[in-house]
Design goal:
The protein is of the alpha/beta class. The chain has a single domain, classed as Vaccinia Virus protein VP39 (Rossmann fold, 3-Layer(aba) Sandwich), CATH 3.40.50. It has 14 helices and 13 strands. The strands form 3 sheets. The chain has a 7-stranded mixed β-sheet, with helices on both faces. Strands 2-3-4-11 form a 4-stranded antiparallel β-sheet, with no helix packed on it. α7 links the parallel β6 and β7. The chain is globular. The structure holds zinc ion (ZN). The site of zinc ion has 8 residues, from loops.
Length: 325
Amino acid sequence: MYSTTLKNFRDIDVHIMRPRGFLERETEWARESYQKVVDGSGFTDVKNCPVCKGEIRSVLFSKFTIDICRCSACGHGYASQVPANVSDVYSDANYLDQSLEATNSEAEYRKKRFYDERVTLIKQFCDGNRLLDVGCGTGLFLEVAKKQGFEVYGQELGKGMAEWTRTTFSIPVWDEPVEQIDTGVRFDAITIFDVIEHVTDPVMFVLAVKRLLADNGVIIVLTPNLDSCALSIMKEKSQIVCPPSHLQYFTMASMKEMARRTDLALEYLVTNGIDLADMKAYYDLVHEDCLARACEHLYQMLQPVVDAANSGNHFKAVFRKNGQG
Ligand SMILES: [Zn+2]
């Protein structure tokens, strides 16, 4: 397993992905989102696990007065409070500007390093070419997929970003929730990259997405791993732990439970992380300079080990809709 992981391993540029001040900035954005909910419609308590509906849980850590709990039955992590109105988090008029700023400075690097790899993964599991990207943001991934021959569509709740993607890349984009998309089009592949952790009911969300899938089509999910190496060290200091933006924190077990609840076949589940880069950012933050340097120098050697141990900080999962499903 390690040798396969090592063979397929691709290095990253730690300085582009985790520049100095990265964690401070991420924490500031998360705090602003929290404040928007406080000033808006406030929070609602979550009593049951959003994946398996179990009631028994333990508190892992807290951030901005919100507990992150772990379900005792399926291991899923979730926020104990969610926004009463999720649009409070995403209502900011500057959201498009912020997203463009966040993506543009590193857009070319991201496209080359990550998006080609994602297109390759889709082709590995999908023969068809009709692709929907849920939460497509400013459309950079769709632009890459389109160039590689996919017939692409997007969905994006941020109306400014949806319009940007429509006009900049001539891609059809729905700006309503996936539950409300009413179309005869069925997709061979639906990608959900860094989106499912934002929703209040991940099972209902995946079922709504599944409705748009062609028979034998695939849903490809990328989402943070609660049991990752970096998160186990950084805990609430991790940029991944950011309620009320991130409400769901998946584990290997809760991914499998999700497949069962949605009657999808989980064909592929691996972790791919940049844990060592996150840990470098963390040790920068707490002024442990030797450790920060060690993480940077040992990145290429240790990250494949972390990935092979299913401890990378992101999951890549492929779910397939079989038959009439
Ligand atoms: Zn559960």
